[in-house]
């Protein structure tokens, strides 16, 4: 039977063992939403590279849309479970046989057995299950080093020197396929956002292995300590930049975590860094995939704080030039220029701003999917609806990831040069994150006061004398 492959199913775990393979380049899919230009590039480049590597075995069909192309193929097709419920429904509608995906370590059945009748899904519980299940960083039944979690070792503030000073990540070299993709995208006149730029992420298996190798050798030893920090002039810090090759199916999560474990056992990387990295790949990544299917489409409509503000155009269209808050401007510039910023910028800057300003969580979820090179429907709901916006009422996290300027001042180097003052909550120079923090608490006090992890914050709110001023100013704030 012919195998139908999607653009995020590019690795050998998908195509080996199949003799006849079809991929569809759908013009309608490229045009459907305002995707980041570099994301469009990666998708086309990845599919075209794979087709060029296996001529005769893999055929790339250019079509207006998937449905039309699948009907025209007019033969029995089999596909692996895709990365969105919409694509899954389409395959079933069109009579395509759907196989379980080989892209994740844990199967759907095993996840369901773990989830059982739970209503709250703590990542830490899932992560420990995964470590044991796949025997990663274990000594018998105990975690190596006697602890499951080295997060407390991994919260160093940013170094004063402005750069982390770790070896550079592996960068790809573009080839003639990339040149053709660029020319085709220019000609298509798509409703894209963000800037075009040199391709920054691995998109073939060979490149993915090189990127992984360089990360393990040069950067994994530094991964942990500054994981939660942000530096204006160091956009990659010690992060792996592996989300693109992982999410395009070019690396298997188990090969990645076993290789990281080997680095620890060979003495090439400290346990805190390796554990931190394993937690991301074997914990968080698997957790968000399984919960996407387990929680279903209703979860994506959750809006516990009734946040309905539309995304402003400077945000949606990635035009940060007028943004004065250095942290927010730097994060939006990163998205504009690379379609990627690291985790803390996504969570503590972009997500935090969106929460404070009451952006509609579903619209924000879509924005993350389309604006990030590693954004896919399955990866977003738990990260955006759950973690960052707490719109699910606490299914995922025990409290909202809300913070003011003091936190940003401690964990980033932005505030020193920022027009706003992180200590001020009123007046012209009131930091939008500091004032936004109190304004948000004030608006949602009744809802969060029962949460014991928010109690101190709520008590702090009651001690603020100029609350009326904060309230009035933040309601109408236009300058960020
Ligand atoms: C609001 C928000 C939006 C996000 N959007 C995406 C997204 O579109 N695509 C995406 O892959 N990740 C997303 N993440 C998770 C995380 O921020 C990125 O995976 C990471 O920044 C990618 O860079 P990296 O490869 O250098 O990661 P590293 O910091 O090196 O981490 C290693 C790997 O762990 C995995 N990982 C870590 N955290 C998560 C997580 N929370 N969810 C899923 N995988 C995780 C990724 O595969 C990543 O490559 C989001 C997080 C938040 C809070």
From TrEMBL:
TM stretches of this protein: none
Biased composition annotated in UniProt, kind: Basic and acidic residues: 148-159
Region (Disordered): 148-167
Protein name: Deoxyribodipyrimidine photo-lyase
Annotated organism of origin: Lentzea pudingi
Taxonomic path: Bacteria, Bacillati, Actinomycetota, Actinomycetes, Pseudonocardiales
